[in-house]
Amino acid sequence: MSVEKTLSIIKPDATKRNITGLINAKFENAGLKIIAQKRLQLTRSIAEKFYEIHKDRPFYNDLVNFMISGPVVVQVLEGNNAVKLNRNIMGATNPEDAEEGTIRKEFAESIEANSVHGSDSFENAKTEISFFFAKIELIV
Ligand code: ADP
Ligand code: MG
């Protein structure tokens, strides 16, 4: 097992309901360490750039509008197999398909307002972490 970092975003549906602490407890209870964290209001251009990979998907515009509808908390999680472990803690994209005990099963409002983002590969985690965090913010 190797120690990895992954990027997580607590989405506007969750910051609005004041449940960032409940979500962070899920990460910590599963053994992930929150090594960097900040609350931001994304601009349209930042959200469009972050989700550029989805720009041809039918839900892209709605997703960008949702991600700028309120503050988000961007964070770096660290632990053994952090990328995969975080995806397991998050649960399936659609909360109807998510397993019991996962963040999306317990907290997501819909397939769009699904409370959290998590990097889906080691390579994407590196890119996404450097999108939001400077090196100096990641010294633990
Ligand atoms: P995940 O966040 O699980 O990696 P994707 O990368 O496929 O999922 O999608 C990015 C985000 O776009 C999802 O988390 C969700 O907020 C939104 N999304 C995905 N599929 C749909 C859909 N069919 N309708 C509306 N929003 C969607
Ligand atoms: Mg994804």
What would you note in describing this structure?
This protein starts with a strand and ends in an 8-residue tail after the last helix. The protein is built from seven helices and four strands, in the order E-H-H-E-H-H-E-H-H-E-H. It has a four-stranded antiparallel beta sheet. The model has no long low-confidence stretch (mean pLDDT 97). It is 39% helix and 20% strand. By secondary structure, it is an alpha+beta fold. Adenosine-5'-diphosphate (ADP) binds at residues 54, 59, 63, 93, 111-112, 114, 117, 120. Adenosine-5'-diphosphate is lined by residues 54, 59, 63, 93, 111-112, 114, 117, 120.
Taking Cα atoms only, what radius of gyration do you get, to the nearest Å?
A: 14 Å
How much strand content do the residues show? 15-25%
How are helices and strands ordered from N to C? Answer: EHHEHHEHHEH
The structural class is alpha+beta
Strand order of the largest sheet: 2-3-1-4
Largest sheet: 4 strands, antiparallel
- Alpha carbon gap, first and last residue: 20 Å
Q: Number of helical runs?
A: 7
Q: What level of helicity do the residues show?
A: 25-40%
Task: Name the bound molecules.
Answer: adenosine-5'-diphosphate, magnesium ion
User: Mean pLDDT, rounded to whole units?
Assistant: 97
The poorly predicted ranges are: none
- The beta-strand count equals 4
Shape: globular
